[in-house]
Amino acid sequence: MNITLFGATGRVGSVILENALSNQHSVRVLVRDSSKLNIKRDGLLVKEGNVLNETDIASSLTGSDVVISSLNTAGTTVLSDSMPFIIKHMKAQGIHRIITIGTAGILQARSAPHLYRFQSSESKRKSTRDAEEHLRAFLLLRDSGLEWTVVCPTYLPIGERIGHYRYEKDFLPDDPSSISIYDTADFAYNQLFSNEFIGSRVGITY
């Protein structure tokens, strides 16, 4: 499988990259600084560039079958600014499947299903800025016509790979705690081979 991965130098993205390469997939990554990606492996093509540059997005997608994005907000609007380019050029190149990493804040609130969690008392975060940015990106995906899945972890320490966790479509499972970057990345990677959550957000926690 030919995969385009955005966010490959991040905590979750680096684990997804390792999973894909270990399973002999070809991976194209777009990074701002290739020196931060201290890995040289068969099947890996590294392109320096910026996800806010439409030309860089288009060239990164060339020849790919699927897209994974583990970009984070970094306190900016990078998710919502880059998503229109990703959607546009996926469609132009006939790529249908995209898996992204979101946040539990954009799942529906169990106590008030008409609200997102970040809008409800279920969220303990004082700032909603990152959740609002993730929501903007999610809404663009939702209306894109692509085969999308947004993996929405709760509190995300580095942790360790446990291999057992709970997940639920569009909601966070009851009594959530945390989920490691490894189990989050493994779950997201495995969505490449599953149709179960196409067109859905998925809440994931231990």
Structure description:
This protein has 206 residues and is of the alpha/beta class. It has one domain (2-205): NAD(P)-binding Rossmann-like Domain (Rossmann fold, 3-Layer(aba) Sandwich), CATH 3.40.50. The chain contains five helices and eight strands; from the N terminus they run E-H-E-E-H-E-H-E-H-E-E-H-E. The protein has helices spanning 11-22, 54-61, 78-92, 129-142, 181-190, and strands at 2-6, 26-31, 44-48, 66-69, 97-101, 147-153, 166-169, 200-205. It has an eight-stranded mixed beta sheet with strand order 3-2-1-4-5-6-8-7, with helices on both faces. The radius of gyration is 16 Å and the shape is globular. The mean pLDDT is 95.
Number of strands: 8
Uncertain regions spanning at least 5 consecutive residues: none
Order of helices and strands: EHEEHEHEHEEHE
Structural class: alpha/beta
Main sheet summary = 8 strands, mixed
